[in-house]
Amino acid sequence: MSDWWNSIQKGATDAAETTKLVSLRTKLQAEVMYIESQIKGALQKFGTDVFSHMENNNSAQVQQHFTDTKREVDNYREQVAAKNAEIAGLNRQMDNVGKDPSAPGAQQGMNNIG
Description:
Layout: H1 2-55, H2 59-96
């Protein structure tokens, strides 16, 4: 009877842990989608800002807009990469839910989330 109850408790604990990890992953995925929309917006703004300068053959202004937009987009891309690394860590943690922590690879990815 004790083993049966322990099994139910472990199942409930594992389900709660998985639910927590899934919600964290979903939050990060939403943040990635938002940042990707920011990238798209920055690129669209670049196009509208640069068009008149290109019509007037003002290459200095075009280059300045490009430099500013590239810096902004690179920053966003770094944020996306960091969030994707966190998502990968959460995926590894979800793969290990319910596994013996002393098993090989069970702790892999646990240190990336904090």
